[in-house]
Amino acid sequence: LKRLDLTAILLGLLPRDRRQRLDAWAPDRIEVPSGSKVRIDYADPEAPVLAVRLQEVFGLRETPRIAGGRVPLTLHLLSPAHRPVQVTQDLASFWRSTYFEVKKDLKGRYPKHYWPDDPLEAMPTRHVRPRG
After folding, report:
1. What's the mean per-residue pLDDT of the chain?
2. Which ranges of the chain would DSSP assign to H, the alpha helix?
3. What are the phi and psi torsion angles at 55 (to 5°)?
């Protein structure tokens, strides 16, 4: 019994139209500006978490939402080493205020990585530097 994937079994019982609605309402993954499809953690259904490297969300102006736009994801913005550097449900505020402090710290620890002055206009990347 421990080896059974109960979630997959239960989802398999849903008719296709209901499964599609569920996927739209509470997706398993979300595509971020870098093109990566990042898994959403629903361990706390009141505050689902998207843990993503900071550089992969450059250009994203607002916090992604699920449940028809009703529920903001809690963003765990990660360093290049996949360690949390900021947790927020208000990405717009993070870019306006806290990003510059975080950038200064990360630029010192990860000097080869891309830390733009304007993260809203910057190209998102999965790599050390954007590929153009």
Report:
1. 93
2. 6-13, 16-25, 91-93, 99-109
3. -65, -20
Show the domain range for 42.
Answer: 27-109
* Amino acid 132: pLDDT: 61
Tell me how crowded residue 59 is: count the other CB atoms within 10 A of its CB: 17
Q: How many domains would you assign to the chain?
A: 1
Q: Is residue 101 part of a domain?
A: yes
Neighbours of 115 (CB within 10 A): 20
Query: Is 10 within a domain?
Result: no
Nearest of 27, 36, 84 to residue 60 by alpha carbon? 36
In a domain, 63, yes or no: yes
In which band, very low, low, confident or very high, does the pLDDT at 15 lie, cut at 50, 70 and 90? confident
Could you report the per-residue pLDDT of 68-127, keeping only the tens digit for each?
999 999 999 999 999 999 999 999 999 999 999 999 999 999 999 999 999 999 999 998
Residue 6 domain-assigned?
no
> Which of the 8 DSSP states describes residue 7?
H
